[in-house]
Amino acid sequence: MNIKKFYLLLLFSSAAVSLNAQKVGIKTNLFYDALATVNAGIEVGLAPRWTLDISGNYKGWTIKERKTKHWLVQPEARYWFCDRFSGHFLGIHALGGQYNMGHFKSKLHFLGSDFRGLENYRYQGWGVGGGIAYGYSWILGKHWNMEAEIGIGYIYTRYDVFECADCGKRVDNRHHHYVGPTKGALNLIYLF
Question: What is the 3-state secondary structure (H, E, C) of 32-69?
């Protein structure tokens, strides 16, 4: 009977140690906040130098006739060079989402992706991809951090092209392979 109590005590002790060492952070990307995009993220410690970050954002409205509606989910595994939630880290992320964009002036033609047609056409579709990222997290206080991150990668997208930003007549169905920046964040984080 005493051996059963010992194993039971050992089980509860190891669970308590694991829960105490487990850290969780909730975050908001200040870049998305500035663009009126609802966003949130959660990051969970998996090991002393590993975390799992899952962030998402949603914009379901039109501002000043510019249609930039979208949703996006972006999970990322992170390796921290020192302690998790502090200092330098590398990440590998995936992403997926849908978009509906038009009536947006742009002169950007970047790495084989032409965004100049957004003024005269509306693009509605979905995309999936992944990439790698580098970031740094500064400790601001006992529970607060600030984090900067930049990522590059690949996105495959399929979309319909409509003849104007506000009308519904479809003129084409296309796909595109994008290579370039896939993540940019300035996160404000609250740690538990």
Answer: HHHCCCEEEEEEEEEECCEEEEEEEEEECCEECCEEEE
